[in-house]
Design goal:
This protein is of the alpha+beta class. The protein contains nine helices and four strands. It has a four-stranded mixed beta sheet with strand order 2-1-3-4. The protein starts with 13 loop residues before the first helix and ends with a helix.
């Protein structure tokens, strides 16, 4: 099976592996940061600080672990309430909740029907938002791409996004995203994997170093 085919079959444990890899890399980084770092504004999430992003992530994972999916869950209004509920928490408590969620949510997601797979991808992307804000290496990249890319491909297929053929500079085989059975000819991307992730998640893009043909950037955003 090639990387182009990975999105056709669900691996129920893939989201959990991605969360565990990100936990092991992100939590030590967060515990070494100051309160001032948690208060930094994020470019990827206008209006949210690093702490807000982390509170959103920890709350979302806790909902998964505790099976709390009331009406309107994960809506912008729900996300803001989750952040507000944690406003009086210490930074350390937010990180503790995030660590627990990244540890325990994978097993719950594996037992689901796949509807929550995208949440794990979103957590990893938000970790990239935090790294970028800190100026730390590895934003939307690193070893976890081995889990993130096939999960991204699966999410784009489920969402029936436009087909995209990606030739990645730092991955041996091409990756096919979106609805590969669509009548529309696939768009074409050439560049590195991190920039592809940025394109597909509406994150700030580098000024150059990649090519996109046959699609507008906004058409690729799975969170748009």
């Amino acid at each position: 099976m090639t990387s182009a085919d990975l999105h056709e079959v669900r691996d129920p444990h893939l989201p959990g592996r991605l969360l565990a890899m990100e936990r092991d890399a992100l939590i030590p980084l967060l515990r070494a940061r100051s309160a001032a770092d948690f208060a930094l504004p994020t470019a990827a999430c206008p209006g949210w600080t690093v702490r807000d992003v982390l509170a959103h992530c920890s709350a979302a994972l806790t909902r998964v672990v505790e099976n709390r999916f009331e009406e309107g869950v994960f809506s912008p209004e729900c996300n803001e309430r989750d952040i507000a509920e944690r406003a009086e928490w210490t930074d350390g408590r937010v990180v503790d909740e995030l660590e627990r969620g990244m540890t325990e949510a994978g097993a719950v997601i594996a037992r689901s029907d796949g509807a929550l797979d995208g949440l794990a991808l979103g957590e990893w992307v938000h970790a990239g938002d935090v790294r970028e804000t800190f100026g730390a290496p590895g934003a939307y990249a690193g070893a976890a791409l081995s889990c993130a890319l096939p999960l991204l491909a699966r999410v784009t297929r489920i969402k029936r996004r436009l087909p995209l053929h990606a030739d990645l500079d730092d991955v041996d085989e091409p990756l096919r995203l979106g609805d590969v059975r669509a009548a529309r000819p696939p768009a074409r991307y050439i560049g590195d994997a991190a920039t592809l992730v940025r394109l597909c998640t509406g994150r700030p893009l580098p000024a150059s170093g990649y090519e996109l043909a046959g699609a507008e950037q906004a058409e690729l955003n799975i969170f748009g």
